[in-house]
């Protein structure tokens, strides 16, 4: 086989690979964008969850004294005498 024929086949093969890549480029880009959006949504959910946990802990810390005041150990299981 002539070397120029081998080169022509190689160039045709490379051109075909390039064409197939260009054909699938919109699908690849849309999948990449979906992955980016999914990651962004995951980060937003993580930040909201951490914010909610922080708010709950701060409310618990603020009201912890009141809860301990009304629920002393040992007096919760007995009824008040009348």
What does this structure look like?
The structure is a single chain. By secondary structure, the protein is mainly alpha-helical. The protein is about 85% helix and about 0% strand. The chain is built from one helix and no strands. The chain has one helix spanning about 5-70. The longest helix is centred in the middle third of the chain and has 68 residues, at about 5-70. The chain is rod-shaped, with a radius of gyration of 34 Å. The N and C termini lie far apart (about 110 Å). The mean pLDDT is about 90.
Distance between the termini: 112 Å
How many helices does DSSP assign? 1
Query: What percent of residues are in strands?
Result: under 5%
Poorly predicted residue ranges: none
Radius of gyration: 34 Å
**Could you describe the largest sheet, including whether it forms a barrel?**
none
As a percent range, the share of helical residues equals over 70%
Multimeric state: single chain
Q: Kindly name the structural category.
A: mainly alpha
- Mean pLDDT reading: 88
Gross geometry: rod-shaped
Count of DSSP strands? 0
Instruction: Report the order of strands and helices.
Output: H
């Amino acid at each position: 086989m002539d070397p120029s024929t081998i080169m022509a086949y190689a160039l045709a093969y490379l051109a075909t690979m390039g064409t197939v890549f260009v054909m699938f480029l919109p699908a690849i880009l849309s999948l990449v964008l979906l992955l980016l959006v999914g990651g962004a949504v995951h980060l937003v959910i993580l930040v909201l969850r951490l914010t909610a946990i922080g708010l709950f802990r701060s409310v618990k810390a603020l009201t912890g004294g009141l809860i301990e005041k009304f629920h002393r150990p040992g007096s919760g299981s007995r009824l008040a005498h009348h």
